[in-house]
Amino acid sequence: MLDLFIPFPERVRWQMLRHAMDCGVDAKTLASRLGKPVRKIRALVMKPDQAVYISDIAEWFWAVDGSMLRFEMVPR
Length: 76
Hints:
Elements: H1 8-23, H2 27-34, H3 38-46, H4 54-65
Helix pairs in contact: 1-4, 2-3
C-alpha cells in the first residue's frame, strides 16, 4: 500500500492555487485586491521556503471569492 503524506504547508499552497485557478482569478487580480505586489502573491504559493500564516490563507480565499478554506480530517 502506498503511504502518501503531503506536508500541511504544501497542501495548503496547492489548495490556495487550485481554488484561485478554479475561480478564474489570476495573480494580478489577487495582487490588486490584496494591495500587494504580484511577486509576493506568486511567492506565497510557489516558494517552498515562504512562510504561510493563517492570516495569509484567510486573505487569499476572501480575495478570490469571499470564501474560507475548509479542512477535513482524513483517517490514515
